[in-house]
Amino acid sequence: MIAAAEGRRPITLALSKGRIFDETLPLLAEAGITVNEDLGSTRKLIISTSDPDLRIIIVRASDVPTYVQYGAADLGVAGKDVLYEHEGIHPAGLYQPLDLEIARCRLSVAVPAGFDYEAAVYQGARLRVATKYVEAAREHFAAKGVHVDIIKLYGSMELAPLVGLADAIVDLVSTGSTLRANHLVAVEDIMSISSRLIVNQAALKTRRERIQPLIDAFRRAVAD
C-alpha cells in the first residue's frame, strides 16, 4: 500500500467501467487496496480507496491513455487495442511497465458466413472495412497488399456487413458468441489483446517514491 500523505494530491489511477475495472479490482486487493464505492450503484467518477493516497477516476476506455499522457491521471489500465490506436497518434507518449494479463481477447477480421474472404484479399484487391481500430486495420491490410476503405464506427460493428455498409469488420473477439448470433465468422486474427498498466512519464520522475510501490504491487499480484 502507498504511504498516506496529508495535504498532497493523491495518486490517480484511470480505469474504464466493465471488464477491465472488474479484473483490476483483485489485483488491487492483492496489494491491500479496496474501493470505497460500489460502481454499480454510484454515479461518481472520482472514487476513493482504502488507501488515502490513491484514488480512481472512471473514464471511457479509449480515453484512458489520453488522461495518463496529459497528466490528469498518474497511471491507468488500458487494453493493447486502445494503446495501439493511441500510439498511432502519440508515439512514445506513455511508459508501459507491465502487462497485467487481464481482459484477454483478440483483435480479428470477421465477415458474413459464406463470404469468400481468401478470394477477396488477393494482391491489389479493395475492401470496405468497418472498425473503430483504424490504425490496426489499415496496417494489417497494407501488409497484405490489400487496399481498404476504412469506415469508422463506434458501436454495433456486426451490423455493418449485414446491411451492406462494409465487406468485413475488425473488432475485438472473446467467445465469438456475438459474431455467431449475427451470422458472422472470424477469419483472421490480427493480434492478441490484454490490458497493460500505463504510467505518465513525468509523474514517474517527480513522484517515483509514491508511484513505484504501486507498480511493484501490481507486478507481485500478476506474478502470484
From TrEMBL:
The keyword Nucleotide-binding applies. The keyword Cytoplasm applies. Keywords: Amino-acid biosynthesis, ATP-binding, Cytoplasm, Glycosyltransferase, Histidine biosynthesis, Nucleotide-binding, Transferase. It comes from the Bacteria. GO terms for biological process: L-histidine biosynthetic process. Residues 60-219 form the ATP phosphoribosyltransferase catalytic domain. GO terms for molecular function: ATP binding; ATP phosphoribosyltransferase activity. Its main location: cytoplasm. Belongs to the ATP phosphoribosyltransferase family. Short subfamily. Lacks the C-terminal regulatory region which is replaced by HisZ. This is ATP phosphoribosyltransferase.
